[in-house]
Amino acid sequence: MSYLALFAYSFAIAIGPVISPGPVSTTIVAEGARRGFRAGPLVATGHALAELVMVVALALGMGHVLSRPLLAAAIGILGGLFLLWLGGTMSLRTVLRKPGLPRAPDSAGQAGRSLLGLGVAATLGNPFWYVWWIGVGGAYVVSTWEQGPLALAAFYLGHISADYAWDTLLATVVASGRSWLTDRTYRALLVACGLFLIYTGIRFIWTGAQYALV
């Protein structure tokens, strides 16, 4: 896979979890209403810094996995199952519960704090973030690190580009007060991303099975 294709694929796989409601989205909505669209890219930068540390830590600790096909197979299959669960629940909950765009909590009041710091804090305070990186992210780090540092960089840049794109869009929508990004459009995005995660999960499991047969 070329670096550009890896970048695009990483972007696509990240966009589903990114647009799902969570601490980072809630922080952006709360701060975007007070501090404008810049809350999006600045919170995203704090989030990206935390993710850079995670990617480097995984890369440095995953070297032994590359020489053990069974470990790589286990990560691929477990990561694939996690993606199937994530994509399935995302799509099903969207259809059944019809969620709207993330809303700020009534108690949100952190106007004096650094937006970068808020991005880091919202990231580290989200248990799902650790689960995603240990499961799915770990499998990607294994496969891309095997291709070299540039491949891993392409994966990381594609991943955080999804954060920057959505976080900036969300902050802009909140700051401008516009309604062109409707709840209905948001739900359609969630379902589409959920289906893509299911497809990717199947690919993960297939790749993991191939490692197991080596």
What can you tell me about this protein's structure?
The protein is 81% helix and 0% strand. α3 packs across α6, α3 packs across α7 and α7 packs antiparallel against α8. Mean pLDDT is 82; it is low at 106-112. The chain has helices spanning 3-19, 23-35, 39-61, 63-66, 69-97, 115-124, 127-145, 149-176, 183-212. With 214 residues, it is an all-alpha fold. It has 9 helices and no strands. It has one domain (3-212).
Task: Produce a short descriptive summary.
This protein has 214 residues and is mostly helical.
Question: Topology, pairings included?
Answer:
Layout: H1 3-19, H2 23-35, H3 39-61, H4 63-66, H5 69-97, H6 115-124, H7 127-145, H8 149-176, H9 183-212
Percent range for β-strand residues: under 5%
Portion of residues within helices: over 70%
Strand count? 0
State the separation between the terminal residues, measured CA to CA. 21 Å
Annotation keywords:
mainly alpha, single chain, globular, 81% helix, 214 residues, 9 helices
